[in-house]
Amino acid sequence: MNQVRTTSRSRWAAIGAAVAVSFGAGGLMSASATLSTGERSVFVPIVPCRVMDTRPAPETIGPRATPIAANETHTISVLGANGNCTIPADATGLSMNVTAIGGNASSFLTIFPSGAAKPLASNLNWTAGQAPVPNAVTVDVPADGKVSFFNLAGTVNVAADIIGYYVDHNHDDVYYTKTQVDAQTMFASVNANGTLRRGSTGVSSALFAGGFGGDYTVTFPRNISSCVFVESTAATVEGNNPVPGYVGATLQSPTSLYVQVYTIAGDTSVQQPFNVIVTCP
């Protein structure tokens, strides 16, 4: 068994202990740490929970029920009990799936730690009147436990689902194994043509036989009927803006080893790159 020791409180700039999964610019990345000393951050997957939804009732989650305005920065608390989530106080980073809903102007969201300078980058882009646009986002959590959402233009409602968090651990205190981490969190980053860009051990992907243009099959090396999966659009090339559109997934029976993923732009099924993250108990 490949055993990895992990480490406390270095912030998550050193993400990479055990098998850490990082999400940014629509991409995913697996890394294995081999250092025997120092501090490390490790990813802790959770059943996805919604920490914020700015839409009017009954969809509202959190204290705000109005869209984020142009050039507005909306800040929320993410540590402790907020929305439908309870995140431990020692979390140093979050992995989220963030969705822009009903934007009335072409714009983008920038998500960053509260109190930090807003970076010159976007996490999520959309055009006026576009269908809901999701993307996977990783963000550092500062000492005050708050995260900020900046909208450039128009108004837009935002829903944010937390799918996991990062914590720091002392290298000499806690042991994690690659096998244990892989069994809890699996992922696939898939190209538009159905080939696997990267993924967890034993994961495969292909275009769904007999399906429409944007139908795919992602197969996992274990039964995932008791797991939770989150899907999002991805960048065509890492570092570029996410591809506009919508991505959904359904668990397939009887084997329960794979999900069928569909990607849509407007009302049309089209081939687009996407990510799927599976979190298991």
Task: Tell me what you see in this structure.
The chain is mostly beta strands. Helix content is 2%, strand content 49%. It has 1 helix and 23 strands. The strands form 7 sheets. Strands 17, 18, 20, 21 and 22 form a 5-stranded antiparallel β-sheet that branches. A 4-stranded antiparallel β-sheet has the order 4-13-8-11, with no helix packed on it. The longest helix is centred in the middle third of the chain and has 7 residues. It is globular. The N terminus is likely disordered.
Question: How would you summarize the topology of this molecule?
Answer:
Layout: E1 3-6, E2 19-24, E3 27-32, E4 40-53, E5 72-77, E6 80-82, E7 85-87, E8 93-101, E9 107-113, E10 124-126, E11 133-140, E12 146-151, E13 157-169, E14 174-177, H1 178-184, E15 185-190, E16 196-199, E17 204-207, E18 215-219, E19 228-233, E20 246-251, E21 258-265, E22 268-269, E23 274-279
Antiparallel strand pairs: 1-14, 2-3, 4-13, 5-12, 6-7, 8-11, 8-13, 9-10, 9-12, 15-16, 15-23, 17-18, 18-21, 19-23, 20-21, 21-22
What is the count of β-strands?
Answer: 23
Summed up, the helix count is 1
Tell me the overall shape. globular
Q: Percent helix among the residues? A: under 10%
Radius of gyration equals 18 Å
Structural class by sheet pairing and helices: mainly beta
Relative strand content: over 45%
Mean pLDDT, as a whole number?
74
